[in-house]
Amino acid sequence: MTQPAHIRRDPGQRPRLLDTALMLAARGIPPLPLRVGKVPFGNCRTCAKNACGSRPNMKSPGSCVCPYPCHGWAAATTDPQTINSRTWARAWRDAAAVAYHPGGADLTVVDLDNTEAIAWARASLPATRIVPTTRGEHWLYQGVMQSANAVRPGVDIKSLMSYARWLGPGTGHMTVLPDVARALTVKEPAPARPSSQAIVRPALSGGGECRHRTPAFLDRGIVMAEQRITDAREAVHTTVYRTFLAVLSAHGRCGCLTDIHITRLFTAAQAQGESPRHCTDAWTNARTTLGL
Description:
Helices cover 36% and strands 14% of the residues. The protein contains ten helices and ten strands. The model is unreliable at 1-10, 57-61 and 189-209 (pLDDT under 50).
C-alpha cells in the first residue's frame, strides 16, 4: 500500500501502525492511535474540556465534527479516508501503538492481567480466541456488553465505550459472549434510592396475553426512555434513575425486557456522562424500589 507523502516521510514503525489501522478498518474493526503509555491522544484545543459539546455514543464522537482523533475511544473509526488523512498524520507520527473499539466491532474483550486471572478464566469461561499480552491474555468473544474495570482480581471487561490495544488476531475459534461473562458486571444490590415519582405497579391478570409483548408498545417505550435521558441538561443522574424506574414499573414484571433493551438504556445514560457503575447502581436501586 502506497502511503501519502505526509505519512511516508516518517521512518520507523509509524507507517506500519497506519497499515495496521487500515487493515483493521477494512475488516470492520474501528482503530485509533495510542500514544506512549497505551493511552489515547488528548482532545485538541477546539475540543479541550469538551468545549465542542461532544457526547460520545457507541461508535462515534457524537455531536463533535472535529477531524482530529479526539475523545478517546470515540475517535475509533472504520473510515479509511479519516485514518489516512492529513489531520491524523501528526497522531500517527507520535503514535506508539494501535488500539480498537471492541464494542464497535460487536466484540467483548475479557482482559486477564496475570496468571491467576488466566487460571480463573480457564476454569470458568468457555474457550474462545486468545491473544497473548505483555502480562496475560485477551479472551475475545462475539457480542457486546457494558465495559467495567476490576470485575474480579486481574480481570477487566472491554467492550462498549472502551478500547483495547491491538496485539494481533490471536488463535482459536471465537465463541459467543457467555452469560457468565455478562454477569461479571452485575453488582450486589445497593440501598434503594428514594424517588419523588409514584410507583406504578402493573396489575396483571392470570391467563391473559401480556400487552407488553407487542413489539411496537415495548419499542416505543424504550425509544421514549432513551430520548428522556438524552434530553436531560441537568440532574442527569436523577433523570437516569427515574427513567429506569419508569421502564421497570411498566415492563419489569412481565419478562419483556431483554439484554438488548437494557444495553440501549445504559448506552444512552453513558453518552450523558454516567459511568457503567452508576448505571448499574441506578438500575439495581430501581429494581429494589419496585421489589423486583
